Every structure is written in structure tokens, then in C-alpha cells.
Amino acid sequence: MTSANPPHTDPVNLVVLHGDDLPPGGERFDADPRLASVRHATADTLGEVLPGAQALFVWDLFSEALKAAWPKADSLRWVHAATAGVDNLMFDAMVGGDVVVTNSRGVFDQPMAEYVLGLVISFAKDLPTTLDLQRRREWHHRETERVGGRHALVIGTGPIGRAIARQLRAVGMSVEGAGRTARPEDPDFGTVVEASLDTAAPGLAEALPRADYVVLAAPLTAATRNLADAAFFAHMRDTARLINVGRGRLVDEDALVPALRAQELRGAALDVAVTEPLPADSPLWDMPGVVVSPHMSGDVVGWRDELVDLFADNLDRFLNEGPLLNVVDKTRGYVSGP
User: Fold this and answer.
1) For the chain, percent helix, then strand, then coil, each to nearest 5?
2) Distances 92 to 54, 245, 274 between C-alpha atoms, Å
3) What is the CATH number of domain 2-107+302-325?
4) What separation in angstroms does the CA of 332 have from each of 143, 180, 223?
5) CB atoms within 10 A of CB 301
6) What is its EC number (predicted)?
7) Does residue 279 have a cis peptide bond before it, meaning omega lies within 30 degrees of 0?
8) Binning pLDDT at 50, 70 and 90, where does residue 11 land?
């Protein structure tokens, strides 16, 4: 999605919100004569440098610091997130205001699709057990599962979900999607059902029992928070696996643990967690059939450079009053509450 950027008043001050590291190649912004200043801030200092800034680059990927600093945003017109999901930026004042938000849609689509395929193959071919046996120097022959012919339900029909669907179809899997609106024909998913258990129309209650793999790739919104709860797991096949590459809070972890123990599903791959890093005392670390990874499904070699290049393109558009790339519909992406 693009949007015509409203005219701005020169000079333009840019703030870069970062954590431990700065954007690679960020020196190009310091040298841009069209910028009056480039100010760097961490979560603790954002409120000090935000006054007078027209643009904010959120490089501290999941920071919620802008909400606390919002009263200082007296000139802010545009926020660009170095992420695909923007739930950390969707607080009341932002959603109700005129500040344009853009994201980094497109950078992560194919890498995340490849990661999901890797997890599917890992589950089907029982690679975790193979590695465990190798470490113990044990030769134990087993039979594994086919990938081709299996069925996947991808919840989230945006660009990432579509890339996942195409990747899984390429290895012979059948795929259907779940999104806000049901539709019988879709070029990537075939069929899309409504992503809700609370509906009289065909939706997750009918789709979940069909799936060998359930992939969560939806944004975190009020409607998707804790989507995968006890009722969700009760509808899954006891031979199915859950893969979450969306947001940790899509899954009710307090419901997932007992569902796994009760063998309501065979396994889960969690690239995201409610609390990150996943606490050391979480039972998910040691549960059979569970794969935990540190929010890395979209992070391939060179991904940081791609993120900065996308921001640089959008900054050029902003400074030239052109249409911005990846404008977020703030009302559709809004998450209320903590």
C-alpha cells in the first residue's frame, strides 16, 4: 500500500531509535544535506530527542518506548518500523492520530517461508531425534513421514502467509488459509476460512481437524491475541504440529503446555514467545516434540542491510513528498491493552 505523503516543513529532523546496535550504513543519513539533524536515541532517551523531529526510524525492533515518549512528539509526521509487525506501535494516541506508520513488509516473506518449510521437514523426518541419537553415538533405525501430500493450514493471509503457502505447495503439500474474510477461491491458498472459532460460518473449527501442520503467520491484533487457546488445540488432530512465526501472544502458552502433555497435538515449533527470551524455567524448553528458536525465522544474512535500504528508499520519498511504501492501516493493525 502507498499513500501520498502530506507536505512537510523544512528542515527535517530524523530520530533513529536503536538498541545495542546502530543501523548498518547509517552514516548515509548523517551526510544527507536534506536533513537538518539525525538524532540517535535509546528507549531511555527517546523523550529527550523527540521534540522537533518529523521522522522516526524504529530500529530497536520491538521497542514500546514511543508510547511513553509520545507527549514529546510535537512535530512527528512519520514513523518507519524495521519490522513487518507493528503491534508495539499501535497505542491509542498513535491509532487516533495523523502520524503515518510504514513497515518493512517484503523483507522477511521468503526467508520466513523457507524457515517454515525447514521446520516441516524437520518434524516429518524427525531430525531432532537423529541429532540427539548422534550425540549419544546410538544407531537407531526409524521410519519417517512424507511431506508431499500433507495438509497445512496457514493462519494469516498477508504477504508472509502467502509466501509460506507457495513454499509448502512447491513440495507437494496442500494448503488452505485462514483470514479475516472467508473466500472460496484464492490464488495461493485455494480456500480461505474465517480465522475465528466464534462463528457459525465455516471457520477454524472445521479447518483445524484437516491440518497436519497449523502455521501461525498472522499479525497480533485484538482479534488474534491468544487465538491458539485450549479450544483451538482441542480442534487440532493429535498427530498435528503447530508452527508459530507470527507473534508470541498469538498462542496461549498456559493452554499449550497442558495440550502437549495431553497429546492433543504432536508437537510445536515456536520461533516467538510471549516473553522473549523464553524464560529459563519455561517447561517448553524440555518438552518432547517442541522446537524453540530465538525469533530468527526471517533473519537471513544481509537482512539488516535490506531493512536499512528500504527505510532509505522511504526517507527519500518522504523528503520529496512522494508516496510512501508499506503504509500501515492503523485501524486494522490495532491492538488494545497491555
Assistant:
1) 30, 20, 50
2) 20, 26, 22
3) 3.40.50.720
4) 45, 10, 10
5) 7
6) 1.1.1.79
7) no
8) confident
In terms of Cα–Cα distance, which of 188, 192, 145, 184 is closest to 167?
Answer: 188
pLDDT reported for residue 201:
66
Q: Looking at domain 109-292, which of 3.40.50.10490, 3.40.50.300, 3.40.50.720, 3.40.50.150 is its CATH number?
A: 3.40.50.720
List, in sequence order, every beta strand (DSSP E) within the chain: 2-4, 12-17, 35-41, 55-58, 78-81, 100-102, 151-155, 174-179, 183-186, 190-194, 213-216, 241-244, 267-270, 290-292, 323-325
pLDDT in tens, 163-199: 999 999 999 999 999 999 999 999 999 999 999 887 7
Mean pLDDT (whole number) for 299-322: 97
**pTM of this prediction exceeds 0.70:** yes
For residues 68 and 64, give the distance between their C-alpha atoms in angstroms, rounded to a whole number. 8
